[in-house]
Amino acid sequence: MRLEVTSEPTCPWTEYKMRSPLDISSSHTPAWRKLLLTGTLLTSCTCSVFSELPFSAQLNTLTEGASVHLPVPRSLEGILTTSWFRGYDAQPAAMIFSPEGLPGPAHTGREMLGTQGSLVLRNVTAQDSGSYTVVLETSRGRRSATKQIHVKNSLQLMPLKTFPAAIRGVIQSELNYSVILQWVVTMDPEPVLSWTFNGVPCGMGEKLFIRRLSWEQLGTYMCIATNSKKQLVSEPVTISLPEPIAQPTEAEPMEPDPTLSLSGGSAIGLLVAGILGAGTLIAGVCFTIIQSLRTDRQRIGICS
Question: Of 28, 33, 160, 169, whose CB has the highest number of CB atoms within 10 Å?
Answer without folding.
Answer: 160
